[in-house]
Amino acid sequence: MRHKKEKFITKFKNWVFTVILVSIMLFCVQGYTNVSGLKFVQLSDTHFSKNSPNTTFKMIAESPNLLDDAIDEINFIPNVDFVMFTGDLIDKPFEKELHAVLPHLDNLNVPWYFSFGNHDICVGGYLTKSLYFSILKENNPDFVFEKPYYSFIPKKGYKVIVLDSIIDSEITANGYIYPEQLKWLDEELKNSQNDVVLIFMHVPIIEPFLSPNHCLKNADEVRTLIEKYKNPIGVFTGHYHAAKITQNNNVLYVSTPSLVSYPNAFRVISIINKRNKVIFDIRFKETRLKNVQKLAKLMVLASSLYSGEEKDQNGVFIIKK
């Protein structure tokens, strides 16, 4: 009798141990399946031109070589989901320049997308936003959008929102988000509160440095709209040719420098989406054309203003859910 009792106790202990072990394994598996990653590259202000000289600020003559170097670097980075060009893809708003840059972009091994910059359009000229978009759609199978502002889902748990911050009714380097687009943005954010939202636009909401002739005219209005939502949001911009990263609670504002002016760099962003937090790992990639970079540095008066501090170049940023 005693032997049977001991045998029962042993079986019961083994059963309890098995239940606990299975529970731990299920918890670990659940934790693992609730982690998803996304990696993308942000390139800004490439100012591509086929046959133009350098200016006092931009290495325009080297723009094709700089773009090819960046594309070559990107193609060797593993697991990139997409590339986003945040404006001023071309330096002069001519159709021939847009057609000239497209063969270079064809060499990318991953999908690429685009937001308008002020150099991409000609006010009152031939290369309108509509024509620009139609050319992109004809030459990029991933570009299927109808408006200059659009959204897509690159992976479950993520939403990409591309904004058009460019004024096309007057010649200006300032930006503005019109009411119709703001209403659309609000609706997109409202429907994406369970996602990590990535917003791309040319003109920054938070300036890396003050420039009244380059600012977003209704920046406060746009920022207030975005920051009323509490899910993790990253905002990625260009225009100022400067590196700056600012975190305000759940919103990360990232300004990226130009490929054709010092520091001649782009960004690689890796995101880990966990159960209770989102981790943004932001890396700064400089051109390998060091002679071009050295000359570009000589052409600016305050190089540190554009390169930013180390914390504006590389960093890990955590946003709690």
What's the helix and strand layout?
Blueprint: H1 2-33, E1 36-43, H2 63-75, E2 82-86, H3 95-105, E3 112-115, H4 129-139, E4 150-152, E5 158-162, H5 179-190, E6 196-200, H6 219-227, E7 233-237, E8 244-248, E9 251-255, E10 265-273, E11 277-286, H7 290-298, H8 303-307, H9 310-313, E12 315-320
Parallel strand pairs: 1-2, 2-3, 5-6, 6-7, 7-9
Antiparallel strand pairs: 1-10, 4-5, 8-9, 10-11, 11-12
Helix pairs in contact: 3-4
Short description:
With 321 residues, the chain is an alpha/beta fold. It has helices at residues 2-33, 63-75, 95-105, 129-139, 179-190, 219-227, 290-298, 303-307, 310-313; strands at residues 36-43, 82-86, 112-115, 150-152, 158-162, 196-200, 233-237, 244-248, 251-255, 265-273, 277-286, 315-320.
Question: Can you characterise this structure?
Answer:
It is a single chain. With 321 residues, the protein is an alpha/beta fold. The chain is 33% helix and 22% strand. The chain has 9 helices and 12 strands. The protein has helices at 2-33, 63-75, 95-105, 129-139, 179-190, 219-227, 290-298, 303-307, 310-313, and strands spanning 36-43, 82-86, 112-115, 150-152, 158-162, 196-200, 233-237, 244-248, 251-255, 265-273, 277-286, 315-320. Strand 1 (36-43), helix 2 (63-75) and strand 2 (82-86) form a beta-alpha-beta unit. Helix 3 (95-105) packs parallel to helix 4.
Short key terms for the protein model shown above:
321 residues; six-stranded mixed β-sheet; 9 helices; 12 strands; 22% strand; globular; disordered N terminus
